[in-house]
Amino acid sequence: MNWTVSLPMYNLTPRLQREYEGLLAAVLAGAGVRDEVQLLREPELPALWRRPDLLLGQTCGYPYVSFLRGVATLLATPCFDVEGCDGSNYSSVIVTRAADGVGALADARGLIAAVNDQHSNSGMNVLRHAVAPLAREGRFFGRVKWTGSHVASLRAVSEGEADIAAIDCVTFGYLRDELPDRVQGIKVLQYSASSPGLPLITAHGVPQEVQIRLRAQLLSPGPQLRQHMAALRIKAFEHRPDADYKRIEQLESEATAAGYSSLTTRLS
């Protein structure tokens, strides 16, 4: 069998990409995978997550609960040593420009929000949840600018193309360490509600014995894997059952119950 692997979610710099590729190699070696494996460095999403030959990948929790149940199987979720993380739960950093007068979330009413993707928990779902109690007649932001990535959302806020954004705290922590210029002039307004982090997944049709070996390697890493984990600020991996990811659906339901099912009725 030929397999595909890819961990594209946090490859923000060449160093991080090398470490995530090293992590992949260590997991496969430790799990005894000897089949031919193709590494996809820049896969198309969400097509990657639906591939029947995906041996090891990573997705956001919102796509998982929205359309990946029965397509992908949860292996384990990383526990990052990053501000905003608690075990394998994570939150988003809600940011604005430091020079602006946005001192509280309510001050962002009518402003422009930069959002990476409509299927993002960290960029869209938790931001919607955060402002839902402040919405009036289903509206809060004046406009939403869809950016395609957290890095682009930060840039839009920094350059004045948008006023506020929710950034995955792991992404924000990596940028602060690796590319500090990207967060210059950025103010952390608050942290969002937390939820289970981005899980490592495998295709639902991958043989059960292979799934078991992959998960075992993540939960009990060997020396080589631990080395890459330390370089990536990953303290451990935890297996989170499907029921845990209902927390993400709960955040969506709470926003909807508050009458705020969409960030704005006006999109760009």
List the helices and strands and how they pair.
Elements: E1 3-5, H1 14-30, E2 37-39, E3 54-58, H2 61-68, E4 72-80, E5 89-90, E6 92-97, E7 112-115, H3 121-131, E8 143-146, H4 150-158, E9 164-168, H5 169-178, E10 186-191, E11 195-196, E12 200-203, H6 208-219, H7 223-231, E13 234-238, H8 246-257
Parallel strand pairs: 1-2, 1-3, 7-8, 7-9
Antiparallel strand pairs: 3-12, 4-12, 4-13, 5-11, 6-9, 6-10
Helix pairs in contact: 1-7, 3-8
Please, what is the CATH homologous superfamily of the largest domain? Answer: Periplasmic binding protein-like II
User: Termini distance?
Assistant: 43 Å
CATH T-level topology of the largest domain:
D-Maltodextrin-Binding Protein, domain 2
Question: Reading side by side through the largest sheet, how are the strands ordered?
Answer: 2-1-3-12-4-13
Query: Can you identify the CATH class of the largest domain?
Result: Alpha Beta
Radius of gyration: 19 Å
Total discrete domains: 2
**Average residue pLDDT:** 95
How much β-strand is present in the residues?
15-25%
Tell me the number of strands: 13
Can you summarize the main beta sheet?
A: 6 strands, mixed
